[in-house]
Structures are given as C-alpha cells and as structure tokens.
Design a protein that fits this description.
This protein starts with a helix and ends with a helix. The protein is mainly alpha-helical. It has a two-stranded parallel ribbon. The protein is globular. It is 47% helix and 5% strand.
Length: 205
C-alpha cells in the first residue's frame, strides 16, 4: 500500500471540513487588526490552514495608508434581489473614498458568483446537517483538534431541538431530504462546482 505522505502534499488532509468562515467582524478596523494579530497564523491543530505565512503586526500597518493598494469591486455583488440598497450605496461610497485616498479601485467580474448562493446551500444544508448536527459539531475523519467538551455539549441539541432557530430547522430539513431522496447527488455536484467558483475568484485576485 502506498504511503499516504507520498501521495498528498504536506499539510493536505483527505477529510478537511469544507464549511468555514471568512474571518472576524469587529466594530472598528483597529479592533480587527488587533484580533488578527492574535489569531492569524498556523496553530498545528487545523488541517485547513495548510502553509500559512507568519502573521504580521496588523496594528502597525494601519498607519501606512492605502496609496497604491489594489481593490476590486465585484460587479455581480450589486443590485441582487436579496440586496439592501443602502448597503450597495455604502460599498460604492467606500470605493470612492478609497480612490480619493490613493488606492487603485477597479470593477471586476466573476459571473459564476451569481450561482454562489445555490452552491453554498447544497453544501451547507446537507453537509452541515450531517457533520455539525448528526455528528455533534465536528463530524468524523477530521484530522484536526477534537474539542471533547464542545462535542459533548453540542450533542445536547437533540433534547432541546425546539429551541433551534427556524432557519436552522429549515436547513436541517432541506439537508435531510436531499440526503435521503437525492442520495448526496446535489451535495457532490455543489462540491465540484465550488472548486470552479474558487478558481474564478482566484483568477480575479
């Protein structure tokens, strides 16, 4: 049998989680920079991190300004059916401000972004229901740290399911239905499409 390390690159896991978060949200940019200075970088416990550069002193970069910084404004991000007009306006105002401050702001297009929510829904509903709810927060096959207390506490949702939010209940119903009657077909298709979407974002970057 071939050695696992000879088939996969360093840091690669055959079973990493594909549900993740973009990053922290804070009240101010300074708070975000301070938080990033604490949490950024590899910790040796999360196989999703791969080769992570050493964290910078994010607070120190706040005084550097944005002159010369390249910013892409996603064309498909505006005017969506579920968008809030005031949010669209705020983002455009911010782009104007960054331009005035010396940043290089341009419009970029990622057409596949339009089906991003559908890709996410198939992955999040079925995947979340299976790994997060049915398998108590962390699922199985995870190469990273297992927080035993979290896993045990999360399992208690079964006795308190009536307290789950309507959104989570709906997501679980969709995920359970898809797994039972579609046998994972749409989940698998969405995972394949997610790679194309990621590549499209990477090309824009």
């Amino acid at each position: 049998m071939a050695d696992f390390k000879s088939e996969y690159p360093a840091g690669f896991s055959r079973n990493p989680q594909t549900l993740d978060h973009l990053g922290p949200m804070t009240r101010t940019v300074a708070d975000n920079a301070l938080l990033l200075s604490v949490i950024a970088g590899g910790d040796g416990l999360d196989p999703r991190q791969g080769a992570v550069d050493r964290p910078r002193d994010y607070l120190a970069t706040l005084s550097a300004g944005v002159a010369g910084l390249k910013i892409g404004v996603l064309e498909e991000g505006f005017g969506r059916r579920d968008a809030e007009p005031e949010v669209d306006a705020a983002v455009r105002d911010a782009a104007t401000t960054f331009t005035r401050l010396g940043a290089i702001v341009s419009t970029v297009s990622v057409p596949l972004h339009n089906i991003g929510p559908a890709i996410w829904l198939a992955i999040a509903s079925e995947g979340m229901t299976k790994s997060t709810m049915d398998a108590n927060a962390l699922g199985y096959g995870w190469r990273g740290l297992y927080v035993t207390g979290l896993r045990e506490a999360h399992a208690g949702w079964r006795e308190r399911s009536g307290e789950l939010s309507d959104t989570l209940k709906l997501t679980m119903l969709i995920g359970g239905y898809a797994a039972k009657f579609q046998r994972g077909r749409f989940y698998a298709k969405a995972q394949n499409l997610s790679r194309r979407l990621r590549d499209a974002y990477d090309e824009a970057f």
